[in-house]
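Late entry, written up from scratch paper. The run itself happened at the end of the previous shift, but nothing got recorded in the book at the time, so transcribing now.
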Amino acid sequence: MLTMLIFGANFVGGRQGALYGLSAPDLVTLRVAVSGVLFSPVLIMNGARTFLGIGFRRATVLAVLVGAPYFFVTMLGLQYAPASHAVVLNPGIAAVSGIVLSRSMLGERLSRSAIFGVPLLLSGLLCVAGAGLWAAPPLTVIGDLLFVAAGLGWALFTVLLRRWRVAPVPATAAVSVLSAIFWLPGYAAFWGFGSLRSASAAEVIGQATLQGLLAGCVAVLLYARAVAVLGPARTALFPALVPVFGVLFAAVVLGERLSVTQLLGTSIVGIGIIAAAWRGTPKAAIVRQA
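Output as recorded:
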């Protein structure tokens, strides 16, 4: 729940950064710089032993799915579409596709309550973003498609954590450190630090705290722990709660107006996640080891 609260605020913070002149590369830089520095001691203490026991190849895959590339796609989408779309499409797609991938890749069976909850999630998504998808300008549709792609990446990350049996701290450290190593030199070469230097100190510090410390470190760490405790199929349901928090943050912080249909859709998503997650626990089949 705390993870989803942070992610809901994260989308709104990214939209605010875009409105204040920070580009998607700027926001990615703040995220990976803070999280990379904070988790680099973990890598140093472990001596980079087969990259924290994960293996460099697998660590790279995890970093691509939810590290700098994932965040760049999400922040780029916020340059075109409102935060209310981001907090619905990204986590909504992650929740639904995460359940499907858990079934196909891990053999996890869904409870009857989950089967009941997933259609509710889909109907809630259509209520919140469906009308906007049909009536939105072309650039907004581009942003929505980027949110969908990011959601698919997050769902695959959720399933691979369990399939590869990766512990929360190594997973977060691998994502954070590799993202910093590969992103920061490219940012310095292609974009420089001009826009960050010209932005207000309050905005930079606020975004660094929200994007880097909370979303990049705390939220990823807690989510990885949730996958280990609850399993990927059940954990994958929880991102659908992000719209519940996110649309409220968007209305309060950014002044984005919500229609009655959007509010109804958000409520439906919330009911769907509660029904699917709390009425039964998915029965896990034997997990194939990679």
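Residues 2-278 form one domain.
(Scratch paper discarded after transcription.)
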